[in-house]
Amino acid sequence: MSKRMLMVMTSHEIMGDTGEKTGMWLEEFAAPYYAFKDQGYTITLASPMGGQVPIDPNSLSDDAMTDDAIRYTKDELARSAIASTIPLEDVRAEEFDAVFYPGGHGPLWDLSDNAHSIKLIEETIAANKPVGAVCHAPIVLKDVKTPDGKYLVDGKAVTGFSNSEEAAMELTDVVPYLVEDELVKKGGNYESADDFAVKVCTDGLLVTGQNPPSSRPAADALIKLLS
């Protein structure tokens, strides 16, 4: 029977008070999506508001268009799935074998403190099923607790978009949270590679990737946990 993968993305499309567009970073969806699809997984897409997921326009620039991102642009089925995600509140953790969160800056606003997301991750981990998140999406872990009431990331090797990467984007003072700081605050053993180099941490049921190039390696790490 094929594995059932839930991918949870942002519905948020404005970068703070700047008026600039943001959302999901395409590579961080496309690379894991095709990694899972090519394994034969059944994939369900969800977002806080349901419907169309906003895609960060910067992730559609020529230098950001990886092979997986280009594959997405030619894939009518994937594009229609991104346009019709199910509302996160309708998701049931028991219906899936694993959960993966692609990043982009959007999750810093609408998935960082989302009660439905927190419950989903807590129930998935409690059921001994893995959770993955890449780039800015590890922010979803900041308030998640284990069944014994500890922060999930406490004492765990974790990564996510680094403070120096956010500074390189000149967005340190725009974003509501810095992923690195929040993971450290909750007891995470934060690790990072050089800016925009591949870095993935697997610790128990938790898989985190640092940045866009870490998207497929993070998905591969999650697949390994499921195999």
Name a few traits of the molecule.
single chain; 227 residues; alpha/beta; 7-stranded mixed beta sheet; two-stranded parallel ribbon; 8 helices; globular; glutamine amidotransferase; lyase; Prot/Nucl_acid_deglycase; Type 1 glutamine amidotransferase domain-containing protein
Overall description:
Belongs to the peptidase C56 family. HSP31-like subfamily. Residues 26-219 form the DJ-1/PfpI domain. It holds the Pfam family DJ-1_PfpI. InterPro entries: Class_I_gatase-like, DJ-1/PfpI, Prot/Nucl_acid_deglycase. With 227 residues, this protein is an alpha/beta fold. It is built from 8 helices and 9 strands. It has a 7-stranded mixed β-sheet. A hairpin with a 2-residue loop joins strand 8 and strand 9. Helix 1 crosses helix 2 (67-73). It is globular, with a radius of gyration of 16 Å. The two termini are 12 Å apart. The mean pLDDT is 97.
Quick structural overview:
This protein has 227 residues and is of the alpha/beta class. The protein has eight helices and nine strands.
The radius of gyration is 16 Å
How many angstroms does the end-to-end distance come to? 12 Å
Number of strands: 9
**Strand-and-helix sequence, N→C?**
EHEHHEEHHEEHHEEEH
| Parts with pLDDT < 50 across at least 5 consecutive residues | none
Inertia-based shape: globular
Tell me the β content.
5-15%
Global structural class: alpha/beta
Which range best describes the helical content: under 10%, 10-25%, 25-40%, 40-55%, 55-70% or over 70%?
25-40%
Mean pLDDT: 97
Give the strand order of the largest sheet, numbering strands 1, 2, ... along the chain.
Answer: 3-2-1-4-5-9-8
| Quaternary organisation of the protein chains | single chain
Tally the helices: 8
Largest sheet: 7 strands, mixed
